[in-house]
Design brief:
Strand content: 15-25%
CATH class: Alpha Beta
Number of strands: 8
CATH superfamily: Ethanolamine ammonia-lyase light chain (EutC)
Number of helices: 8
CATH architecture: 3-Layer(aba) Sandwich
Oligomer: single chain
Helix content: 40-55%
Structural class: alpha/beta
């Protein structure tokens, strides 16, 4: 390759590095990564582990007046080995919803730790107020929000069975990686009930400071929920 070609190739590679947080051109010393890069890798790995095994701060839950119910997750190890345990509420949790939640709400908001407690701590304070503003702007009424400990995405179907909402949005921590441990997803479904398929749901993922901005996500979710109610569908059938 000539000199000009080499420069163009280098410029292209440097441009890629500006647009991705992935580990590119980290360098090495002999056969191993540079010490600084190895330490950064270990730090990112530790943050991911802490996100999975951590607990959402009580202050985060209390700030928005959320009460807590639990799935059949039992403990973190069981939850990680048996995903189905996070898709159904305990009998006590179901009874609490019957006592404290408005039945048949238009919009049911649920928050869950999922696989990253840090995602909820870092993003809920921005995304939830933005969503509430968007619901008001779109003429939608909110039900009784609450927090689910040990939840998986499928728990929205069990909640749908119990509360019969028109639409449900679930904020849940995503599986952390080595780029960020703070990523949250928002799953939405029209008339969620047991047996719903993944194609019946919609999702906005990578909600965090360096991904989809939480405020933007909250604003967009309200518009999507209105369209779901108008069209009476969600997932791949929704015309956006």
């Amino acid at each position: 390759m000539n000199i000009n070609g080499t420069i163009r190739g280098t410029d292209r590679f440097l441009d890629w590095m500006k647009h991705t947080p992935a580990r590119l051109d980290v360098g090495r010393a002999g056969t191993r990564p540079l010490t600084q890069e190895m330490l950064k890798f270990r730090l990112d790995h530790a943050e991911a582990v802490d996100a999975v095994y951590g607990e959402v701060r009580e202050e985060t839950i209390a700030e928005f007046g959320l009460f807590m119910v639990e799935t059949q997750y039992r403990d973190k190890e069981h939850y990680l080995k048996y995903p189905d345990s996070g898709r159904t509420l305990t009998e006590e949790g179901a009874q609490v919803l019957a006592l404290r939640c408005a039945p048949r709400p238009q919009v049911q908001i649920v928050v869950s730790d999922g696989l990253s407690a840090k995602a909820i701590d870092d993003n809920l304070a921005d995304v939830l107020p933005a969503l509430r503003d968007s619901l008001a702007a779109n003429g939608l009424a909110e039900g009784t929000p609450f927090f689910v400990k040990g939840g998986r995405v499928g728990v929205m179907d069990d909640i749908g069975r119990l509360l019969n909402p028109e639409v449900l949005v679930l904020f849940i921590g995503e599986r952390p990686g080595l780029v960020t441990a703070s990523s949250m997803s928002a799953y939405m479904c029209y008339r969620p009930v047991p047996g719903r398929k993944d194609s019946d749901r919609m999702v906005i993922s990578n909600i965090h400071a360096n991904g989809t901005p939480p405020v933007e996500a909250g604003a967009h979710i309200g518009t999507l929920l209105r369209k779901m109610i108008e069209q009476k569908v969600s997932g791949v059938k929704l015309e956006v």
